[in-house]
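On clarity, I found the account of how folds are encoded harder to follow than it need be. Since the whole study asks how a given chain folds, the encoding of that fold should be made plain. For the editor and my fellow referees, an illustration may be useful. An entry of this sort, consisting of the sequence and the corresponding backbone structure tokens, reads as follows:

:::
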Amino acid sequence: MMVAIDRHSEKRDCLETAFESFNQAARTLQRSYEALAARVEQMDLELARSNEALRQQLRENETMRAHLDGILESLSTGVLVINEQGLITRSNRMAARLLGMEQQRLLGQQATVVLAQAGLGLCDRPQRIGQAMVAVTETSLRTELGESGRLILLQDITRLYQLEEQVQRKDRLMAMGEMIGRIAHEIRNPLGSVELFASLLRHDLNDQPVACRYAEQISQAVQAMDRLLANLLAYMKPGRPLCAWHSVEPLILDALNLAAHVLSQAPVEVRLKLDPSIPVIWCHSERMKQVLLNLIVNAVQAMPQGGTLTISLTNDEAKSLGRPAVRLTISDSGVGIDPAIRSRLFDPFFTTRAEGTGLGLAIVHSIVEAHEGRVEVESFVGEGATFAVVLPHPSAAWSRGDDRVCDDGGGENHPTQASLVGSDTGR
């Protein structure tokens, strides 16, 4: 009996020991679980912070990428990104505009082929593409990992090229200005004597019609030479005009009337597109009429088979003078201007017309510059030409207080149809 009790007691002790071991293991496991849960929670927090930092970095990268894209698209320089195979992998809006292609169509194209199609090459000299002058340069594309391709830069230097042309033109004119003035004055003196003797000869030969006609022809030739010299002197020393406000439409209609002899030679349709909000312009009326006449004659001569002559007046939205200005344009649908002669259009004595003197556009340029304005030309061969006269347009309040405001009558030699030189660029 005692043996059974002892065995039962031993089993109970073993069971209690086992339960105690189990409880300790359970408590250890509980502590391990709690530690693991705490660690998992900490890792979740760290992961959340890491994810938030990553999202923030992605947002910053996206903002930076959009910012860089905006900078690239806003550049006034065309940019082509070229890989090692010479293919275009990226371009901006200016490059597409200068090359006359859509940006998406540029991607994957051989850069040299695209440039050749536009008539461009990699060289230091300025190159013409359409109405623009561009400089094409190439440079390596370097990153932190080293060289990873090339960049081709297309810089629009049209304005710089125009300024250089103006400087060169002024240098040429300064060199020949004094010589022309001296020669003109020296020639006018004997011309006066020839005209006087021709008049006396006509008087003495009234009873000899044939000889009298010869004397009349001498007189006419002398007068033609005198008009030419007068235009030369007016071109070389235009002086600063005394300006006032003048209605635009009467100036244009007067110039068209003076050009009637040219307009009647071909079927030309005249269109006026005048902004009603600009009823007047600030100018010297007679000199501006001379500008209009020369440009109208030039436009009609460029349309020997007839066409459309458009005269328009708008505000100068481009602000090319750096102050309020108006843009008076004379457009034709004629033969256009050869790009090879564009830089010489306003040079005196330059003409490709057999009957021309080469003074028409030179006088236009001189008069407009005396008005503190500028003349711009846009033309494509076979598609006509547009000459834009950009003139300052001061406020009415400013002009009323300006001492230069006066009537144009004050002793000026007003041009007539006979004395004006038609433009003769020979387009």
